[in-house]
Amino acid sequence: MLDALESVYGINDTGIACGAAGTPPTYNAVPGTCDTRQATPVFQTIPLPAGATAGTAMAINNSGDVVGSCVFDDPSFNNGFHFGAFLYQNGTTTLLDTLISDPGSVSRARQDGACGPPSEGSASKTSNIRIP
Question: Rounded to 5 degrees, what are φ and ψ at 105?
């Protein structure tokens, strides 16, 4: 791609990578996967949840399930947008925000280390997430 935005954020044991790609003029990122074992890998897009304007695939497991983040335009927020989380599994994209009892807990969990090693001085928390 000429003058494209491309990023890889995860790769599984079978060589399937996940990330995002975007092209001018907007560079709105779309999530996707790519088989790195191919001579000429092809980026396969993942459908965004309804209403999302951009997204990024952040991690992929060996079954090919992908989790990521997406952006929604939302004038009710001071910055004009908010983030969501999605799961892509068996050809279906599910917005995870609807499965979390306290949507703010996603960002708090990340800050508190529930999504990775806790930072110094923080208490680890977990969120109530049901995967369908």
Answer: -70, -20
For residue 24, what are the domain limits?
Answer: 5-93
State the sign of the Cα–Cα–Cα–Cα dihedral 10, 14, 15, 19: negative
Q: How many domains does the chain have?
A: 1
Residue with tokens 């001085």: 121
Phi, psi of 44 (to 5 degrees): -105, 115
> What is this structure's pTM?
0.70
50-90 pLDDT, tens digit each: 999 999 999 999 999 999 999 998 888 778 888 899 999 99
- 66 in a domain, yes or no? yes
Closest CA relative to residue 69, chosen from 120, 16, 110, 119? 110
Count of residues in the chain: 132
Any domain includes 52: yes
Tens of pLDDT along 9-64? 999 999 999 999 887 777 788 899 999 999 988 889 999 999 999 999 999 999 99
Nearest to 35 by CA among 11, 53, 58: 11
